[in-house]
Amino acid sequence: MTTLTPPAAERAGVGLLDPPVDMGQQAGLGTGAPPSEGPAGTRRGFLVRFVRGRESDAPWVRPALLTLLVLTAVLYLWDLGASGWANSFYSAAVQAGSKSWKAFFFGSSDSSNFITVDKPPASLWVMEISARLFGVNAWSILVPQALEGVATVGLVYLTVRRWFTAQAALLAGVVLALTPVAALMFRFNNPDALLALLLTASMYALVRGLEKAQTRWLVLAGTLIGFGFLTKMLQAFLVLPALAIVYLLAAPTGWWRRVWQVAVMGVATLVAAGWWVAAVALTPAADRPYVGGSQNNSIFNLIFGYNGFGRLTGNESGSVVGGGATGSAGQWGPTGLTRLFNTSFGNMASWLIPGALLMGAALLVFTIRARRTDRERAALLLWGGALVGIGLTISLGQGIIHPYYTVALAPPLAGLVGIGTLGLWQRRSRWAARCALAAALLATSVWGFVLLDRSPDWFPFLRFLVMAAGILGAVVILALPWLRKTPKLAAGLVAGLGLGAALVAPLFSTVATAATPHSSAIPSVTPTPVGGSGFPGGGGFPGGGRFTAGGGLPRLGRTGTGGATGTGGGFGGGAVPSGGFPRRFSGRGGFPTGAGGGGSGTLPTGGFGGGTRIGGAGGGFLNATSSSPALTKLLKADAAQYTWVAATVNSNSAAGYQLASDDPVMAIGGFNGTDPAPTLSQFEKYVSAGKIHYFISGGGAGGFGSGGSSDDSTKITTWVESHFTAKTVDGTTIYDLTSPTTSS
Questions:
Q1: Radius of gyration, alpha carbons of the chain
Q2: What is the pLDDT of residues 319-346, one digit of tens each?
Q3: Which of 94, 277, 550, 639 lies in disulfide reach of 663, CB 3.0 to 4.6 Å?
Q4: Inter-axis angle of helices 88-99 and 138-163, to 10 degrees?
Q5: pLDDT at 536
């Protein structure tokens, strides 16, 4: 085995913080042990290497990693079925894709391919393959999300471990696993889980490419970002500047080769993202579903409008509400540099951001005179640049920005914390490094106290514990020169107090979030801040106002099979009663038996534009409807004779009925009910051709003003009401479109 000494490692481009490098292992030659004979010996040798890890690693490293991954899997998978359909909007699309390959490819909301979801379909593909293998149920939909979370934790570990110690890599993995928004979204079926995995994988590929300036790794990085685009469009490109800048700065090759390699990465990104876009754009409109979220049935309108620059400017045709100017309280919360720390966003992912930024800035100062290819500085710029780039975009975006988008911050935050903590600790003999580390710990504990103080009834002792541990830990760090005679005790005190101050509050929040079922389109973590602004968390609009169950937005707690009883405001945030972890719910778990958010639970009345319903049919704009057994039976009767068993306004209303009946339901106007699809004349043609059996009233378009130019859904509703006779089934008004009134 050839091992590089520190001077040799420095000349070879390996940072001084690296462990000794086994060159045989780097070349893929194994650990240097003699190969085992025969298949059985080979299997035993593989298992030994798998558990043991690198020969240069301490014996505890690989078991610690495996323990981290197993515990993360338990955290993300435990009682996963309690959330039922979770976001029924995407669950209905999964159901459609499991029945129709055309719906699979385009990302249709229904298997008859009327309209697509308002995102590209990559995240649906993963769930739909699972659903085709294991059937359409809560577990087949949500387990892939949880496994994506475990894989993301593993990739963060591997990426940090390439250049840094096992301690730094393990700390990074732990931080990611214990970020509350990660536990929220890796147990949910929004596209953000796959996006976080793909962006993390692209950073790993760039790190590999930086080691020997290998173009193939940059092609892989670009390809992964391209598939990230097919997951959530332009949000995937937010890491591109950090990747490109770091490679141009630190790759160990000439300037022009770096330039063309970055250009190749860009081309790979465009190809990986563009093939599906080209397929949609080149398919005649008559041969594909309407592009949901667009105002003209164009994939480019969706890319650059509703899911693109409109998110930054607030000028989004088809949005249910408009944005707000920078610094003002728009419908999606106040914008500005402090947005990540407000009452809606703060408890999602910001627990460690102040300390991480302090540590990253300090280490950049320490490495300012290092050689161009210095790996520590490159890693800081990579992880920190991604964190800052994504954070600034979320903070300043004036369009639709939801707090759970911050899950994209979790991997770069975790990497920066791992590198920053160990980097400063290894420089602890320097007064400036100790001051920076102490300041970061103190900032983390103070900010943790502030976040916990926003939910004063939720484990009220916790904020004082966090503050005390942070102060004591900072004092011990500063006093390290006077503790030289007891280095192990000093290290133990710093580790215990530091990890306690930094991670105990996120740990409690993460466990509570994982223990709370979540449904509807905009989930939130536990605890719910008092007086939160924006949709999630506080349950109201900016200014802290809350909605009551009697009007406007419902409190989206659910009761019944697979349900939860929510007591706080917000959209499915799963507020915790009595200041503790959620109570256990009877009859939970398992597969959902009905529609709408999972289980056969009853949803609250009210909603955005759905009007008041009784008999558990509510749901409204951001939560799925819950179809009663009688209504479901009616929809399923003679379903094979129709292209769509029913039509209703907006996708969430349609999703509940579709999941209950297992038959396609037309979502008029798409997700918001504001897409101009179908027009009234098109709808009349569908009805006259006998393609739609029922129209279900009460879906509603938007609720605060459409934000779009189309009122087609209103015209269709008016036309149906004037030409067909209404009847009520368990409190839900429906119209049989095969039986017009005599006057019509």
A1: 27
A2: 655 444 444 445 556 788 999 999 999 9
A3: 639
A4: 100
A5: 38
> Which residues are paired to 647 by β-bridges?
666, 695
Residues 6+ apart with CB under 8 A from 491: none
Residue type, 31: T
**CA–CA gap between residue 623 and residue 87 (Å, rounded):** 8
Nearest residue to 475 via CA among 497, 453, 458, 455? 497
Q: In Å, how far from its chain's centre is CA 131?
A: 20
**pTM: predicted TM-score of the whole model, two decimal places:** 0.83
Note whether 269 and 240 are within 8 A (CB). Answer: yes
Cα–Cα nearest to 466, from 488, 442, 490: 442
Tokens describing residue 223: 């390809």
Confidence (pLDDT) at 607: 35
Residues present in the chain in total: 744
pLDDT at 632: 93
| pLDDT the model gives residue 20 | 38
DSSP characters over 615-676:
TT---TTTS-----HHHHHHHHTTGGG-SEEEEEESHHHHHHHHHHHTS-EEEETTTTT-S-
Give the model's confidence band at 42: pLDDT under 50 very low, under 70 low, under 90 confident, else very high. Answer: low
Query: Among 370, 350, 359, 472, which Cα is nearest to 422's?
Result: 359
Who's near 550: CB < 8 A, 6+ residues apart?
606
- Look up residue 352 and give its amino acid: L
Q: How would you class 165 by CB atoms within 10 Å of its CB: exposed for 0-12, middle for 13-18, buried for 19 or more?
A: buried
**Amino acid 314: pLDDT:** 75
Identify the sign of the CA torsion 51, 57, 63, 68.
negative
Q: Give the per-residue SS3 of 255-280.
A: HHHHHHHHHHHHHHHHHHHHHHHHHH
Can you list the positions of beta strands (E) in 491-626? Answer: none
Q: Which one, of 636, 598, 588, lies nearest residue 619 by Cα?
A: 598
Q: Which of 598, 631, 585 is nearest to 732 (CA)?
A: 631
- Please report, rounded to a whole number, the percentage of residues in the chain having pLDDT higher than 70: 76
| d(C-alpha 191, C-alpha 172), whole Å | 23
**What single string gives the DSSP state of each residue in 281-329?**
HHS-GGGS-B-TT-SSS-HHHIIIIIIIIHHHHS--TT-SS----TTSE
HEC sequence for 7-19: HHHHHCCCCCCCC
**Which letter does DSSP use for residue 238 in this model?**
G
User: Residue 541's closest CA among 343, 719, 728, 735?
Assistant: 343
Taking phi first (over 0 means left), then psi (-120 to 50 degrees means alpha), and beta for anything else, what does residue 596 get? left
Q: CA–CA separation, 388 vs 731, rounded Å?
A: 50
What 3-state class would DSSP assign to 735?
A: strand
What residue type is assigned to position 248 of the chain?
A: L
Q: Which of 628, 601, 619, 613 is nearest to 554 (CA)?
A: 619
Q: Check residue 528 and report its DSSP letter.
A: P
Please give, one letter per residue, the 3-state secondary structure of 91-157.
HHHHHHHHHCHHHHHHCECCCCCCEECCCCCHHHHHHHHHHHHHCCCHHHHHHHHHHHHHHHHHHHH
Query: Among positive and negative, which fits the CA dihedral 660, 661, 664, 670?
Result: negative
Residues whose CB falls within 8 Å of the CB of residue 9, separated by 6 or more in sequence, listed in order: 15, 16, 18, 20, 21
**Three-class secondary structure of residue 2 per DSSP:** coil
On the 0-12 / 13-18 / 19+ scale of CB atoms within 10 A, 140 is buried
- Span 738-744, average pLDDT: 77
- Helix, strand, coil percentages in the chain from 3-state DSSP, rounded to 5: 55, 5, 40
The structure tokens listed for 743 are 């006057």
